[in-house]
């Protein structure tokens, strides 16, 4: 199923329709008539993120990530949003939103629209920001802390943003409380870190394979997990942190190759 079929919002300089009525067996909201169908920008990259992360969702996760793929993806997007990386935040959400149903689909769809609206404000596309801020609350209406997410601050912010999109330049948007607390990158388990790292790699052009290997090697000891967390949250130092990560990953790969060589026999 393509992104166009689910009519997500994008971060291009236009806005998107509401949910299409015949996409799944769950009821759909009436499309917002003032929005245009637009697929482009970063949303299409979500399918690429799925390829990087989906095979890890069947593995045993560290404590703190739920056994369902939606939970680490939700947590990764919330952590990116809290860090102000609004465009990247939608990417983990999209990988699970495409197959979600019911309240989970509405939650993810609404959050994706909120982050798209915020991205439009960074480009001073006030019309796009206003349209998405008007439509996002329709998806979030009536949801009572789905997956532990407190939506009241976001709903209130959307009303203010729809009335005056420039408000985003005067004050930062409210955080998205997750089970009553503020999520950071260090709160993510392995699958959440994989998804957040893949999203930032897609945004910035850094080697996603190096980052995926670094998370795989982050077993609670050594430099990998702290460096991945720094890579995600310290944008100003990202180039230096990635260089250090690359060196550690190369070293670990060489060590693994050396061990494998011990058990190989010449034909």
Low-confidence stretches: 1-67
Query: Structural class from helices and strands?
Result: mainly alpha
- Termini separation (Å)? 47 Å
CATH C-level of the domain at 3-170: Mainly Alpha
Gross morphology is: elongated
Can you tell me the CATH architecture of the domain at 3-170?
A: Orthogonal Bundle
Tell me the CATH superfamily of the domain at 3-170: TTHA0068-like
Task: Tell me the series of helices and strands, N- to C-terminal.
Answer: HHHHHHHHHHHH
CATH topology of the domain at 3-170: Hyaluronidase domain-like
Residue-averaged pLDDT? 78
Give me the Rg, rounded: 19 Å
Number of helices: 12
Strand content: under 5%
Let me know the largest β-sheet: none
Helix content: 55-70%
| Quantity of strands, as a count | 0
Secondary-structure map:
Blueprint: H1 3-6, H2 46-53, H3 70-82, H4 86-97, H5 102-122, H6 126-140, H7 152-163, H8 167-170, H9 190-204, H10 208-217, H11 224-233, H12 238-262
Helix pairs in contact: 2-4, 2-9, 3-4, 3-9, 4-5, 4-9, 5-6, 6-7, 9-10, 9-11, 10-12, 11-12
Q: What can you tell me about this protein's structure?
A:
Mean pLDDT is 78; it is low at 1-67. The longest helix has 25 residues, at 238-262. With 267 residues, the chain is mainly alpha-helical. The protein has a domain at 3-170: Orthogonal Bundle (Hyaluronidase domain-like), CATH 1.10.3450. Helices cover 56% and strands 0% of the residues. The chain starts with a helix and ends in a 5-residue tail after the last helix.
